[in-house]
Predict the 3D structure of the following.
Amino acid sequence: MIRIGVNGYGVIGRRIADAIRLQPDMEVTGVVKVKADYKATLALSKGYDLYSAEKSGKDSFKEKGLAISGSLTDLVPKVDMMIDASPGDVGAANKSIYEKFHKPAVFQGGEDHGVAGVSFVAQCNYDKAKGHSSTRVVSCNTTALCRVLGSIDESMGISRGRVVLARRAADPDEPSKGPIDAVVLDPVNIPSHHGPDVNTVLPGIKITTMAMKVPTTHMHLHSVILTLEDPDASKETITQKLEDTTRVLLVNGKDGLKSTAHLVDLGRELGRPRGDLYEAIIWKDSICVDEKEASFFMAVHQEAIVIPENIDAIRAMLGSESKDDSIAMTNNALDIDK
Ligand SMILES: NC(=O)c1ccc[n+]([C@@H]2O[C@H](COP(=O)([O-])OP(=O)(O)OC[C@H]3O[C@@H](n4cnc5c(N)ncnc54)[C@H](OP(=O)(O)O)[C@@H]3O)[C@@H](O)[C@H]2O)c1
């Protein structure tokens, strides 16, 4: 079993820990928290060994009667690999700790590409991570764009992509970021960082992205417009390609799924933990091709989409499974159909 430490037990870290547990070839050695809050109690109740981020932080857990197994520097020597799911930029500061103990580490999309030098989306560049001591799983929006644009580019060629991203303003457990009553250009400048971030995984795709924050905690919504090289591309060929692409789910507005709220409802009914939707979700009946220009709407469950990539990044770095085998193992464990 591959022993994994998870540094950060927030939105992403909690899901990664639970997903690791579902895999046949890996186990969670411990999880790292700063605050001795309800999430620390939950981690213990699930059977995870709990570690504090700082040595001095151990006392606050003891004062609350929470069993603490040590601090981050006690956990790192015990593992085969660390997953860093701490807040953006904190991961880069943690890198020297992992290096000190010669432990490979997976970082998240809140870090710059330079933290690892390899930015990762399993179906796009799995083999690139092999043998690397660090890999960065890109952000939720970039993961969705890479899965979908990578697949379409492979078969039809994309000469230019344009994407407008309406981003959720905060995650559901961040009430301090609201309430708000505005659409906030984030950033005002064009392009947003998402296009250049796609190019860290798919360097050949020309893409312009524009982004804004909207007052919701559920999901991001992308309006995608692609100029295609293939003169024979049609609604049918694009739909078929996306049907065949792993971790992309097509839904229909005419079935009553007309909003992100409906998708949240669907996720809950699928019976997955927390109602998580790991797929990039595209409205099939939004797909439109006019001459060589294809357009569609895509939704991204920001809390969930990067979880399968984190699992695959572990196997990719260690070289323990091929791309197809790892994706199949992860999909099977997380109940992702294809
Ligand atoms: N949220 C999303 O939608 C999303 C989507 C894709 C990627 N990401 C990326 O995933 C990473 C984690 O994001 P998140 O949303 O999971 O963050 P989060 O909910 O704020 O959780 C961060 C976790 O890191 C812990 N932590 C460990 N060391 C820390 C330190 N030195 N300072 C502060 N906290 C520390 C925190 O502990 P406490 O709980 O004790 O405070 C918390 O459990 C970021 O790079 C982010 O950009 C996030």
User: Anything to note?
Assistant: The pocket of NAP is lined by residues 7-13, 32-35, 39, 53, 85-88, 90, 108-111, 139-140, 171, 302-303, 306 (CB under 6 Å). Residues 2-137+306-334 form a domain with the Rossmann fold fold (CATH 3.40.50.720).
